[in-house]
Amino acid sequence: MIASVFGKLWVLGALVVIAVSTAAPQAVYAGGERKLEAQLIWGTNEAESPDPNHKPAEPEVQRKLRSLPFKWTNYFEVNRVQFTVAQGRTNRVVMSKECEIAVRSLGDTVIEVTLFGKGERVGTITQALPKGELLVTGGNAPNFTAWFVVIRQID
Question: Could you tell me the CA-to-CA distances from 138 to 25, 70, 79, 146, 150 in Å, in that order?
Answer without folding.
Answer: 30, 11, 14, 7, 9
